[in-house]
Design a protein that fits this description.
Layout: H1 32-37, H2 67-79, E1 86-89, H3 96-105, E2 114-118, H4 124-132, H5 149-152, E3 157-161, H6 168-180, E4 182-184, E5 191-193, E6 197-202, H7 206-211, H8 217-223, E7 226-229, H9 240-254, H10 264-272, H11 278-292, H12 302-310, H13 319-333, H14 344-348, H15 352-361
Helix pairs in contact: 9-11
Length: 386
């Protein structure tokens, strides 16, 4: 048994690598009694030897054996013993918080606080107070002194989710505490010093925010010391059966049901679905499936999943592309005629000169045979039936 197979499942805790509301301390726990009743075909056949026990410590919340997941766990093992800042990148619902918790659990700070804050969930006016605290009377409603998350995480780890939502005016203060380890509470001139390891997470493109002048470049490079990309569920589809079995066990135990069989057809559909909402979506779907199951065989509502899989995803369209397409379609209907009561300008409800301006701006021109550059524009999407 190699190390790649050693850290794929913790059957004692029964927790899964999933987006979760971690205020629910029972999330992922499986009743030993219920687990014992499940058939061997339903339970994952992984077992751990004494030799590999140390390799899975800190990974109790993670389930999977895919190469993509093993690569992430390898990065966690590498960076955890250091005090370096980590930037976890991945789509919503991929389990970024669990990766942050695993880094903390394997670090030298494991016995110190692990403090979490979702920056997108806090109103902008209160975010500075949440991060750095405030003194009594610092603002209306500040009736007592408040300790911020940085102070609460002193000598431990602070996990800031959705770091890209921090406003520009706070980013300089965040950069200072990362570089100097010091800050002031709101309403105070006294400098506080802290020793905090920061783990940040984002589901967006921070570099794009930098180019748009919405995120400081110096803060980005300070956060991007050790990036860890977390794969989407569609990129580790071989882990879906393990996750399905886990969530079935979890919700069956919670609802005091006995579900000991998952039909092969159902597992095939679940494994082939793209899961745009990642593990969060899978978790919620399995919970609904267990609710709908009257007996011992899981009865998931697969109709909705099949329809979603068969429907063609919408192509991303920019405003400029949408304008170009609409003008091109109108020109096609008028055979390239712009002016007149039946021309494209009249159909679009604009002056002829205005339409010519839009055509010039969007790179649409007409040749002598009334064909427009829409017919060979690389970004066009003209409905050929119109």
């Amino acid at each position: 048994m190699n190390s790649e197979n050693a850290a794929v499942l913790d059957e004692r805790s029964g927790m899964a690598f999933a987006y979760a509301d971690h205020d629910d301390v029972s999330l992922g726990s499986v009743s030993p009694d219920v687990s014992a009743e499940l058939s061997p075909a339903l339970l994952t056949p992984y077992r751990f030897t004494e030799e590999h026990e140390h390799e899975r410590k800190g990974f109790e919340g993670i389930v999977g054996s895919s190469a993509a997941l093993m690569e992430v766990l390898g990065l966690v093992r590498t960076v955890a013993p250091t005090d370096s800042t980590v930037l976890i990148e991945g789509e919503t619902g991929t389990g970024k918080e669990l990766i942050a918790a695993a880094i903390h659990a394997q670090s030298k700070r494991r016995d110190r606080p692990f403090v979490k804050l979702n920056c997108a969930a806090i109103p902008l006016g209160l975010l500075e107070s949440e991060l750095f605290g405030h003194e009594r009377g610092a603002f209306t409603g500040a009736v007592t002194r408040k300790v911020g998350r940085f102070e609460a995480a002193d000598r431990g780890t602070l996990f800031l989710d959705e770091i890209g939502d921090i406003p520009m005016e706070l980013q300089a203060k965040l950069l200072r505490v990362l570089q100097e380890g010091e800050f002031e509470r709101l309403g105070s001139n006294q400098t506080q010093r802290v020793n905090v390891r920061l783990i940040a997470a984002t589901n967006g493109d921070l570099l794009k925010l930098v180019s748009e002048k919405r995120f400081r470049s110096d803060l980005y490079y300070r956060l991007n010391i050790f990036p860890i990309p977390v794969p989407a569920l569609r990129d580790r589809a071989e882990d879906i059966p393990l996750l399905v079995r886990h969530f079935v066990s979890k919700y069956a135990a919670r609802m005091q049901k006995r579900v000991d069989e998952i039909p092969v057809e159902a597992m095939t559909v679940l494994s082939e679905h793209s899961w745009p909402g990642n593990i969060r979506e899978l978790q919620n779907f399995i919970e609904r499936s267990v609710i709908l199951t009257p007996g011992k065989t899981l009865r998931p509502p697969l109709g909705g999943l099949r329809q979603a899989s068969e429907s063609k995803p919408l192509e991303a369209v920019t405003l400029e592309d949408a304008e170009r397409d609409h003008i091109c379609k109108t020109l096609k209907k008028t055979n390239g005629v712009v002016a007149g009561s039946h021309g494209a300008a009249a159909r679009l409800g604009m002056k002829r000169s205005t339409l010519y301006y839009y055509m010039q701006r969007l790179g649409i021109s007409r040749s002598k045979n009334s064909r427009s550059t829409c017919d060979n524009h690389p970004n066009r999407r003209i409905d050929q039936q119109n």
